[in-house]
């Protein structure tokens, strides 16, 4: 199957997940599926915007009480000539006309008193402007105001905003659950690989790639070679095999004696949607639908081939399920690339002012080039030209 057709088919194969209410932190990076409205006004009541004295009428003012943020509000209405010592954010008493910040406050003698008095009562004075330093109820955000529309991306700032408006959950499209199955008797997961062994280089990049595309890796299972373990891991009811889920199989996609994925999928009655893609690297990649509704993505064992295949089949379907389509980017190509007569080539490049620069080191078995690059240039079969499509490589963080 041509590369572009495989990518489009992968996107179509995933239905959009139904919106769900999730706790705020889980909504990060998702899109809102409903407008976000204020459940409460901000601020909720009239509050002091400065530490100082809430005052009524003209000074000097007799200090009749104090109120802290979180403390009990002052119980009575202030009368002209009265002040209440107040903390920033504390409810302003009824009748308060302004807040006099400490910095602008002078100790005042009681009216009609000749000098500084020794009474236990306190008098304060200072210049205030009517209404100054009191944030009125709903002044920042009115109750019921719609602050964000459906489709808005949930950023860290959106989480803080939603919390301040009284929300504990947000309605978003959930992250599609991806289960990773790493096959290969020769594959080890820690330390230096002994001769004939190889460190798993695919399992470590999948969670970041899936998260970046809008999904979530729910678990990783390491499988020995052989059809039995793979069949059990993809059987009905196994993690990643249900509707709205994805199982990613690393390795076992080619034609060797240990490459059992095709046979296992046939035995399970899966519908093979993509069986090989005309792309280099990564042609032995597969997409299938299990009878239970789950999708299986087969990635080749060579790590750069697996990355190229993950960007061809896995990322588009995860994005589609999450409702977060990628933008299309084209660029000039600032360096030579090899062109294949029948296959699309995916070439690691770095964007620069001159265009996309091929970084080399792009053998299927090595992620060196992909690690140096920030995008893959899509070089169609027989291509000649100047502008080229780029697909973004996932960034960290
Ligand atoms: N007769 C054919 N042989 C091969 C073909 C073909 O079309 N006909 N295609 C070649 C290409 S291209 C690729 S890519 C590989 C894909 O093979 P598999 O998906 O079956 O993967 P394996 O055979 O298990 O492994 C291939 C290679 O990758 C190493 N590997 C496997 N898993 C990992 C991992 N998690 N991390 C790092 N490296 C891994 C494995 O040791 C092998 O060296 O098939 C070609 N052969
Ligand atoms: O798909 Mo294999 O890509 O070249 O190593």
How would you describe this structure to a colleague?
One of its GO terms (biological process) is Mo-molybdopterin cofactor biosynthetic process. Keywords: Magnesium, Metal-binding, Molybdenum, Molybdenum cofactor biosynthesis, Transferase. One of its GO terms (molecular function) is molybdopterin molybdotransferase activity. Residues 179-320 form the MoaB/Mog domain. With 397 residues, the chain is of the alpha+beta class. It has four domains: 3-17 and 174-322, MoaB/Mog-like domain (Molybdenum Cofactor Biosythetic Enzyme, Chain A, 3-Layer(aba) Sandwich), CATH 3.40.980.10; 28-40 and 141-172, Alpha-Beta Complex (Molybdopterin biosynthesis moea protein, domain 2), CATH 3.90.105; 47-135, Molybdopterin biosynthesis moea protein, domain 3 (Molybdopterin biosynthesis moeA protein, domain 3, Beta Complex), CATH 2.170.190.11; 329-392, MoeA, C-terminal, domain IV (Beta-clip). Helix content is 17%, strand content 28%. It is built from seven helices and 26 strands. The protein has helices spanning 3-13, 156-164, 206-213, 227-234, 261-267, 303-322, 368-372, and strands spanning 20-23, 36-37, 47-48, 52-55, 61-67, 82-86, 98-101, 106-107, 123-125, 134-135, 146-148, 169-172, 177-183, 187-188, 198-199, 216-223, 245-250, 271-275, 279-280, 286-289, 295-299, 329-332, 344-352, 355-358, 375-379, 387-392. The strands form seven sheets. Strands 7-4-6-5-9-8 form a six-stranded mixed β-sheet, with no helix packed on it. Strands 16-13-17-21-20-18 form a six-stranded mixed β-sheet, with helices on both faces. Helix 3 packs parallel to helix 6 (303-322). 39% of the residues are buried. The mean pLDDT is 93. The structure holds ligand LQZAQKY5 and molybdate ion. The site of molybdate ion has 9 residues, from loops.
